[in-house]
Design brief:
The chain has helices at 2-10, 19-31, 90-105, 126-132, 135-138, 192-202, 204-210, 248-268, 288-302, 320-326, 358-372; strands spanning 35-40, 44-51, 57-63, 111-118, 143-151, 158-159, 164-166, 168-177, 181-182, 217-226, 232-233, 236-245, 272-281, 284-285, 307-308, 329-337. It has 375 residues and is an alpha/beta fold. It has two domains: 2-166 and 284-372, Zn peptidases (Aminopeptidase), CATH 3.40.630; 168-281, Alpha-Beta Plaits (2-Layer Sandwich). Helix 3 (90-105) links the parallel strand 3 (57-63) and strand 4 (111-118). Helix 3 (90-105) crosses helix 11 and helix 9 (288-302) crosses helix 11. The structure holds zinc ion (2 copies). One zinc ion (ZN) binds next to loops.
Length: 375
């Protein structure tokens, strides 16, 4: 598995352009006796293995894509694709699922296992592409499971919770349309600068004054851009930003409050306002029963002492959320290690997947299958 993982690490591909990685996966799956479906969701792969005569079936999912990050590691298996890097550990996720494929081909179980290798996780597009291609209609599975490595969490520990485990992400752009002109004659213009400042401050009340305190949410303005210059009052100001939530109703409340504040503050000053609010990722919400199944498989893999079944939800987001919106399932975290042994954070140019956890993740998948599709 280490050899496969380091091979994938050396040749990272991004977005939907994961053809070579998908080909590598297909070759391996076929050599283990899996039926394979390629170009599913553009460049995704589904591998199928059926044993016995039960019609029980589950899906296990890994992600194939890397990031546009220039790798700063120095080791031999460094990225050979300039400007691209497996900085999120999807090389490890793909390898652990391939390891499970080999193990499952030699293991007795009763039912069908679908191995789902999705492209374009990082931009939140691959899961939907596979769903639109009929992932859950063509391949009837009862539940779908996913896993992500987590730097800073001790190697081999497994964590999950029976509910929202990662946040939904929304992005917004507010355009304030005033009327600019000479900086010495503000009385002739509609200056969008104080208006943007008022909106930026008012938006601090969205979470603190509009959202139920038992919920959690984040509203961040991350960019402010004007078309003015040092002696010219601008005509237009654009505010951009990012919101996180753990519940789609909260996402709707944030958008409503943002519309109200920005339009009314602009109107109060005679300016016009345009708000574009995009939902990029829904929150990742595990179903209760399947979280219990995941915990059971984790217990069998690393022992209950190393399993945290009530982990804190994280404010990062994950494309697997789109699968959990339409199918019951559970997303778990596997510790990638601490400090110099796997502790470097995801999306960092110094990150590397910790090969020491490959067998743990692989064994978790195998245990999940043999427990759910027991003979
Ligand atoms: Zn990532
Ligand atoms: Zn990732």
């Amino acid at each position: 598995m280490q050899e496969w993982r380091r091979h994938i690490h050396q040749f990272p591909e991004t977005g939907f352009e994961v053809e070579d990685t998908a080909k590598f996966v297909v070759e391996k799956l076929q050599s283990f006796g899996f039926e394979t479906h390629s170009n599913f969701g553009k460049t995704g792969v589904v591998g199928i293995l059926k044993k016995g005569d039960s019609d029980q079936a589950i899906g296990l999912r890994a992600d194939l894509d890397a990031l546009h990050v220039k790798e700063l590691n120095q080791f031999d298996h460094c990225s050979k694709h300039e400007g691209k890097m497996h900085a999120c550990g999807h090389d490890g996720h793909t390898t652990m699922l391939l390891g499970a494929a080999k193990e499952l081909s030699e293991t007795n179980f009763d039912g069908t296992v679908y191995l789902i290798f999705q492209p374009n996780e990082e931009h939140g597009l691959g899961a939907l592409a596979m769903i639109h291609d009929g992932l859950f209609e063509k391949f009837k599975m009862k539940a779908v499971y996913g896993m992500h490595n987590m730097p800073g969490m001790p190697a081999g520990q497994i964590a999950m919770n029976a509910g929202a485990v990662m946040a939904g992400e929304d992005n917004f752009t507010i355009t304030i349309k005033g009327r600019g002109g000479h900086a010495s004659q503000p009385h002739h213009h509609i200056d969008p600068v104080p208006i943007s400042a008022e909106i930026a401050l008012a938006m601090q009340t969205i979470v603190s004054r509009n959202i139920d305190p038992s919920e959690r949410a984040v509203v961040s303005i991350t960019e402010i851009e004007t078309d003015g210059t040092v002696n010219v009052i601008p005509s237009n100001i654009t505010l951009k930003g990012d919101c996180r939530n753990f519940n789609e109703a909260v996402s709707l409340e944030i958008e409503t409050a943002m519309q109200r504040l920005s339009h009314n503050i602009c109107a109060a000053h005679g300016a016009e306002c345009e708000l574009i609010y995009d939902r990029v990722f829904p929150p990742t919400v595990n179903s209760k029963q399947e979280s219990g199944f995941a915990e059971q498989a984790a217990n069998a893999t690393v022992g209950p002492d190393q399993v945290n079944p009530n982990c804190e939800a994280l404010t990062i987001s994950e494309d697997f959320a789109n699968m959990l919106k339409v199918k019951a399932g559970c997303y778990v975290f596997i510790g990638n290690g601490e400090d110099s042994e796997g502790g470097c954070m995801l999306h960092n140019p110094h990150y590397d997947f910790n090969d020491a956890i490959l067998t743990t993740g692989c064994q978790y998948w195998v245990n999940l299958v043999t427990q759910q599709l027991s003979v």
